[in-house]
Design brief:
disordered C terminus; 2 domains; MetI-like fold; about 280 residues; mainly alpha; globular; about 0% strand; about 70% helix; single chain
Length: about 280
């Protein structure tokens, strides 16, 4: 009897139209709370950070943590390094990945399927298994403690993934548009730029977002290959605020907020290209 009533109550709750929305709101609040806590901590004084019970809104609102992070620490250099690594890797991945997939999808040759499978097979190896081999390789090549090593490694990780993402899109692309462009006198590169990319812009923008965010958030390989502070990305350089006697939670929270902003800006810009790509075409 009790079980039947419980089941009936559960079924009634699940049958409400607002139940899915309430569930999504609860999950969203759970996921966003750490970001909210990080944000408010960046505006607290050091004493308020350790206050108990904790305050959910800063009592003594201060910008001193941002002043420390931006003017009294190497955080701007770390952010600049991360931008160099992320934008360079993204440019390589988007350019080379698009050209590679374009060739594999529209200009097939004997063995092209095996090459495509090779790109898929590289994803079977976890990135963690590649850290030590690549560190040894780069050191022997004289690329240890260089920006080049980080850019090459990040590009190598995301490049096969870009092929996997773009391949299915390019394979389903109307071949008639390629033939029509060829009849109009367009070269293969011109066809790619003027016909293929405008229509597949959402997929290309998605690859750019993944490449940027992957590189931006990577920590372990730069930590292993770099030993000069001026070369650290923000993910490694943020440990500047972790000392022997404690952690400067205010400045490190401010630096973390600053770290999030470039990724949000890049995602917003790329998202606009996704929307514009959906409304553009190569039809006359």
């Amino acid at each position: 009897m009790v079980l039947s009533r419980i089941r009936g109550g559960v079924s009634k709750i699940l049958g409400w139209r607002i139940t899915p929305y309430l569930t999504l709101i609860v999950i969203l609040l759970y996921l966003l709370f750490p970001i909210y806590w990080l944000f408010i901590t960046s505006f607290k004084t050091q004493s308020e950070v350790f206050q108990w019970p904790p305050t959910f809104v800063p009592v003594h609102f201060t910008f001193s943590n941002y002043l420390v992070a931006l003017a009294q620490s190497p955080v701007p250099i770390f952010v600049l390094n991360s931008l160099i690594y992320s934008l360079s890797a993204t440019a390589f991945v988007v350019t080379i990945g698009t050209l590679t997939t374009y060739g594999l999808s529209f200009f097939r040759y004997r063995g092209s399927e095996k090459i495509t499978f090779t790109f898929f097979a590289t994803r079977f190896v976890p990135p963690q298994a590649l850290w030590l081999p690549f560190v040894i390789l780069f050191i022997r090549l004289g690329l240890g403690n260089t920006r080049t090593a980080v850019i090459i490694f990040e590009t190598m990780l995301v490049y096969p993934l870009s092929i996997i993402m773009l391949k299915s899109i390019f394979d389903s692309f109307p071949r008639s548009l390629i033939d029509a462009a060829a009849l109009d006198g367009c070269s293969r590169i011109t066809t790619l730029i003027r016909v293929v990319i405008p229509i597949t812009a959402p997929a290309v923008a998605a690859v750019a977002i993944i490449a940027f965010l992957w590189t931006w958030g990577d920590f372990m390989f730069p930590f292993l290959i770099l030993n000069t502070t001026n070369l650290y990305p923000i993910t490694v350089g943020i440990f500047h605020f972790v000392g022997d006697v404690g952690v400067e939670w205010g400045p490190i929270s401010a630096a973390s907020v600053i770290t999030i902003l470039p990724g949000l800006v890049f995602f917003t810009i790329a998202q606009r290209h996704i929307v514009s790509g959906l409304t553009r075409g190569a039809f006359k």
